[in-house]
DNA sequence: TTCGCTTTTTGACTTTTATCAAAGAGCCTG
DNA sequence: CAGGCTCTTTGATAAAAGTCAAAAAGCGAA
């Protein structure tokens, strides 16, 4: 979905605002396996995924990769430590499919919120949703077994298994690839 | 710290706004082990902890208690699913020490944000901070060992060990009480 | 279709953590 | 300070998950 369409579903946008948005939104098409942001880099843009899939991950000192989460179409994504605090990113953002993004700069984003308080509502709404998801994630990691977490994911986002390799899913679940493979074979 | 003092440290408050706040803020003193919110209940107040410590936890079907997190003085706390979405809470909020709280109702909170856009800044700031903490928590649970998580907690919040029983800390770390005890004895 | 590469599975073994049970320590109260 | 709590530790054992290595399966390109 195009970002303007998405915004219109959540907010009543005047023709002027739409025009203003069109001026500041940059649209781009990225190939599969393209690294958008890597640790140490600054990221001053907020992206909206029109189509595609982005993996957010980091590497431990020993070189092991861990998937923090997947971002799919119709969602916003950015290197949040960097976008919000101006710090360098600690994570990678990498496409796992051909991906179409729309993005706006940090400055334009701030301006937009200032000029049109309407956007603040959506901003807060999105943060609430992100926090809800994070809380569920924490409790899942804290007290569910690997098998339970696997089954939740299968329930809530079955399509992810068609789109992402099991190695990436395993690290997202916080388990090794072999363990995930064994969980799957036990059914 | 009193909530007004806290707010003044973050925002320039006019005398009128302070007066307005004083009208809507309710201050209360709770004993140790008081349950503020329990699962199924609605919570329409936002609390600020002036003094004390609150544990947020839930119970699995099997009856096992898991600590989602601890909330300490100079922080806001509420049953977020309930305060934000109007759903019944899924968690307990329970004091682990004598606790002094200031709180405002959901309606007053909304009014305040609407009337004084200044507060929206703090609102967003607090949410950013919460999200930062949650992200760190997720990555810790995902790829650190129990020992590493224990050591991080010891680094970042050493005082918690003086204030909270090891059983609660163990469940916060996502491990059994016995495992925590063994980690501690190995040093 | 075949070669080469990546992903997934399987097996053997080790490490980590949970569980159950009981002992020990600490602490409040009468 | 004695008795009865709760909290913490310790021990033995079981379950869960990790690691390493190799085989199997899948897939894309020549």
Automatic annotation (TrEMBL), chains A, B:
<dbReference type="GO" id="GO:0003700">
    <property type="term" value="F:DNA-binding transcription factor activity"/>
</dbReference>
<dbReference type="InterPro" id="IPR014710">
    <property type="entry name" value="RmlC-like_jellyroll"/>
</dbReference>
<protein>
    <submittedName>
        <fullName>Crp/Fnr family transcriptional regulator</fullName>
    </submittedName>
</protein>
<dbReference type="InterPro" id="IPR018490">
    <property type="entry name" value="cNMP-bd_dom_sf"/>
</dbReference>
<dbReference type="Pfam" id="PF00027">
    <property type="entry name" value="cNMP_binding"/>
</dbReference>
<feature type="domain" description="Cyclic nucleotide-binding">
    <location>
        <begin position="9"/>
        <end position="128"/>
    </location>
</feature>
<dbReference type="GO" id="GO:0005829">
    <property type="term" value="C:cytosol"/>
</dbReference>
<dbReference type="InterPro" id="IPR000595">
    <property type="entry name" value="cNMP-bd_dom"/>
</dbReference>
<dbReference type="InterPro" id="IPR050397">
    <property type="entry name" value="Env_Response_Regulators"/>
</dbReference>
């Amino acid at each position: 979905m195009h970002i303007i369409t998405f915004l219109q579903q959540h907010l009543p946008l005047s023709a002027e605002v739409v025009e203003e948005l069109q001026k500041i939104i940059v649209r781009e098409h990225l190939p599969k396996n393209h690294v958008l942001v890597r640790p140490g880099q600054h990221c001053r843009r907020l992206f909206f995924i029109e189509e595609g899939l982005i993996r957010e991950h980091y590497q431990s000192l020993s070189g092991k990769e861990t998937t923090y989460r997947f971002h799919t179409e119709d969602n916003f994504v950015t290197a949040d430590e960097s976008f919000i605090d101006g710090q360098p990113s600690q994570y990678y953002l990498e496409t796992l499919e051909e991906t179409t993004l729309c993005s706006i700069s940090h400055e334009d984003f701030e301006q937009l919120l200032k000029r049109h308080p309407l956007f603040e509502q959506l901003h807060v709404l999105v943060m609430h949703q992100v926090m809800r998801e994070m809380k569920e994630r924490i409790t899942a990691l804290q007290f569910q077994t690997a098998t339970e977490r696997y089954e939740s994911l299968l329930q809530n986002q079955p399509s992810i298994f068609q789109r992402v390799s099991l190695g990436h899913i395993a690290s997202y679940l916080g388990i090794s690839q072999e363990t995930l493979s064994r969980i799957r074979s036990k059914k």
